[in-house]
Amino acid sequence: GQTLSIVPRSGALPAAVHVVEERTVGPSLGQDSIEAGIRAGAVGALLVIVFMVLYFRLSGMVAVAALVLNILGLLACMAGFHATLTLPGIAGIVLTIGMAVDTNVLIFERIREELRNKKTVLSAIDAGYSRAYRTIIDAHVTNLLSAVALMWFGTGPIRGFAVTLSIGLIINLITAVGVSKMIFDAWSLRRRVNTISI
At a CB cut-off of 8 Å and minimum separation 6, what does 78 contact? Predict the structure, then answer.
């Protein structure tokens, strides 16, 4: 109020400033948006988990384990950077979940294709991962370049979205490709399976 009253006084004509209305917006409005975003993200993640388990059965469980590790790793990195969870950050997490599911669908469809070609379970898993790997790398690098551009040219919320997405994509490469492959390999070798639930 005092600063505003100084501005008109510094002009050619003196003018009095009267406060007609004064409002204070509390943090509850932002908090409501964050809670709604988290709810929407949780419902979306739950639907994705249900789809993966119903469509890919036991292999879907492996994908869900990798997805949970992905989200935990992303949240741990955000905590390490002392980042605040904002709506753009939540959007970055949701997009990361989408990329993780896309990665697993690519891999599993390749494995199914190899199994249809009468390959053994171990060789189908190896071939499925190696054939999907290049496509996965291409998709992740493209998204990472877009995220870097957003970080470079963007401001505030856009930069927050880009940072969350970048971290999520890097962790997704580790979990969806590395961790899930390790789970498949350990399970297949230990049980010496002839079939796989996929």
Answer: 85, 89, 164, 167
